[in-house]
């Protein structure tokens, strides 16, 4: 049943995605993938649409609107954030000072927060499971604990760091 539906809708989706992609700034293949994913989610929750062609056209247009909204809010970086190649000595010194201020603030955090933040900032790129095992806490409590610790860290750093410009 699903295979028949996909086979029947494939030519229509290809045509619709190709027609709409240019206006949204998206690639037709990306639109197709997003709509296929939506269809699978729809099938899982509600079963097949009563009018598959109409549903597909609506889904393509909805994805195009979502893509336009997303594109409007995204801003490219002026430089690659982790790229130290073009930085002058002053920029490198300022980055090092920010790193020291961050590490000092992390050490001043209450409770388990210093250990948690050090694990999150670790160059080993630990998974949540590894961090939870290392700290002896459940993996499920890691997210809320991280949020609480980040809130504390923001309060500690707010007098030291200028407010960020709004993005988007």
What does this structure look like?
The protein is an all-alpha fold and 168 residues long. Helices cover 71% and strands 0% of the residues. The protein has helices at 2-24, 28-46, 52-73, 89-107, 113-121, 128-135, 139-157. The longest helix is centred in the first third of the chain and has 23 residues, at 2-24.
Q: Count of helical segments?
A: 7
Q: What is the mean pLDDT?
A: 83
Instruction: Work out the helicity level.
Output: over 70%
Shape designation? elongated
Biggest sheet descriptor: none
| Category from helices, strands and their pairing | mainly alpha
Order of helices and strands: HHHHHHH
Work out the strand percent: under 5%
Low-confidence segments: none
- In total, how many beta strands? 0
Distance between the termini: 43 Å
As a whole number of angstroms, the C-alpha radius of gyration is 24 Å
Quick overview of this protein structure:
This protein is mostly helical. Helices cover 71% and strands 0% of the residues.
Task: Output the keywords.
single chain; 168 residues; 7 helices; elongated
What layout of secondary structure does this protein have?
Blueprint: H1 2-24, H2 28-46, H3 52-73, H4 89-107, H5 113-121, H6 128-135, H7 139-157
Helix pairs in contact: 1-2, 1-3, 2-3, 5-7
């Amino acid at each position: 049943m699903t295979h028949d539906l996909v086979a029947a809708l494939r030519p229509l989706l290809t045509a619709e995605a190709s027609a709409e992609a240019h206006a949204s700034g998206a690639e037709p293949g990306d639109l197709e993938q997003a709509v296929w994913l939506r269809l699978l989610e729809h099938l899982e929750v509600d079963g097949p649409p009563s009018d598959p062609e109409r549903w597909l056209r609506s889904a393509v247009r909805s994805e195009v609107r979502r893509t336009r909204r997303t594109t409007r809010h995204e801003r490219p970086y002026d430089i690659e954030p982790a790229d130290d190649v073009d930085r002058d000595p002053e920029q490198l010194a300022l980055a090092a000072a920010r790193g020291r201020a961050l590490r000092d603030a992390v050490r001043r955090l209450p409770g388990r927060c210093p250990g948690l933040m050090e694990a999150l900032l670790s160059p080993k790129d630990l998974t949540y499971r590894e961090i939870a095992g290392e700290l002896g806490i459940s993996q499920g409590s890691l997210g809320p604990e991280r949020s609480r610790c980040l809130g504390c860290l923001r309060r500690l750093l707010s007098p030291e760091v200028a407010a960020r410009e709004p993005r988007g």
